[in-house]
């Protein structure tokens, strides 16, 4: 009888830990992701946050007021990911600061476009037409690349992302390229035949890049690739499942619909 009692106690001691282990694995541990963004508006990320919560992944959205701190905070481990910058900016910032960061997914493109009050398409561009483009290096260079994509000019090979007017090697229609302050271009639209306006300035002037332009950057093109926004993480974290889910949910068709609703076509999904 005593022997049977001892065997019964031993059996209970063996079974109890196994039962406890099963209960623990049955409940997925909550995972927290700290995501750095720029500015206070993050409606699309609010949607992603709700979707991740359904999988017991808590997304904490942290707003920064500049374009320097989010990458430094990521490198220093204060946040787990950030989403605020283009590929071109990211690559340059990494090189300048020697940071071990990597992109794990594309988000949106804020497209630059060509506008006109006189022409309905680029087919109507004539000999000697006037073209307004931004006079700052970044937007001006991007504008020239856009003109090349549109087939209106050819740039010297190897000029990179910031070509200048001096880098134009072919201008078949002898277009007059007029450099203006970016914010002045919408007000000067009546004085030129076509104008290149960057996304933010166009929106402030009540233009819709996708509806009001006669030519727009194609998110799937190689020329537009440097200007696509990304989700960045530390290289050592790029294979973490929770961060992969962050990207996967952002790139779902339902999120595309949220992007269209929030931005009203002013930016386009780039995935």
What does this structure look like?
With 271 residues, this protein is α/β, with parallel strands linked by helices. The protein has 2 domains: 31-111 and 228-269, 3-Layer(aba) Sandwich (D-Maltodextrin-Binding Protein, domain 2); 113-216, D-Maltodextrin-Binding Protein, domain 2 (3-Layer(aba) Sandwich), CATH 3.40.190.10. Helices cover 36% and strands 22% of the residues. The protein has 9 helices and 13 strands. The strands form 4 sheets. A 5-stranded mixed sheet has the order 9-6-10-5-11. A 3-stranded parallel sheet has the order 2-1-3, sandwiched between helices. A 3-stranded antiparallel sheet has the order 12-4-13. Helix 2 (43-53) crosses helix 8 and helix 2 runs antiparallel to helix 9 (253-263). The longest helix has 25 residues, at 2-26. It is elongated, with a radius of gyration of 26 Å. The model is unreliable at 1-26 (pLDDT under 50). Belongs to the nlpA lipoprotein family. It is a lipid-anchor. A lipid is attached at residue 21 (S-diacylglycerol cysteine). This is Lipoprotein.
Descriptive key words:
single chain; 271 residues; alpha/beta; D-Maltodextrin-Binding Protein, domain 2; 2 domains; five-stranded mixed beta sheet; three-stranded parallel beta sheet; 9 helices; 13 strands; 22% strand; disordered N terminus; membrane; lipoprotein; Lipoprotein_NlpA
């Amino acid at each position: 009888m005593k022997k049977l009692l001892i065997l019964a106690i031993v059996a209970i001691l063996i079974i109890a830990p196994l039962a406890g282990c099963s209960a623990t694995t049955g409940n997925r541990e909550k995972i927290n992701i700290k995501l750095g963004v720029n500015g206070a508006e993050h409606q699309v990320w609010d949607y992603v946050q709700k979707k991740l919560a359904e999988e017991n992944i808590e997304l904490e959205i942290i707003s920064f007021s500049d374009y320097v701190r989010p990458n430094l905070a990521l490198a220093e481990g204060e946040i787990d990911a950030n989403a605020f910058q283009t590929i071109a900016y990211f690559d340059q910032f990494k090189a300048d600061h020697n940071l071990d960061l990597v992109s794990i997914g594309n988000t949106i493109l804020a497209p630059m476009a060509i506008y006109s009050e006189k022409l309905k398409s680029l087919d109507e561009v004539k000999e000697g037409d006037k073209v307004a483009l931004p006079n700052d290096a970044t937007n001006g260079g991007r504008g020239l690349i856009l003109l090349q994509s549109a087939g209106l000019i050819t740039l010297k090979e190897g000029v990179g992302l910031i070509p200048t007017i001096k880098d134009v090697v072919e201008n078949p229609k002898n277009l007059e390229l007029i450099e203006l302050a970016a914010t002045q271009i919408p007000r000067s639209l009546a004085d030129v035949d076509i104008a290149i306006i960057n996304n933010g300035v166009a929106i402030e002037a009540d233009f819709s890049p996708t509806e009001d332009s006669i030519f727009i950057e194609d998110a799937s093109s190689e020329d537009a690739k440097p200007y696509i926004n990304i989700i960045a993480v530390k290289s050592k974290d790029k294979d973490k499942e929770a961060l992969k889910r962050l990207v996967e949910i952002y790139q779902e068709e339902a999120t595309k619909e949220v992007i269209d609703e929030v931005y009203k076509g002013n930016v386009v999904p780039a995935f």
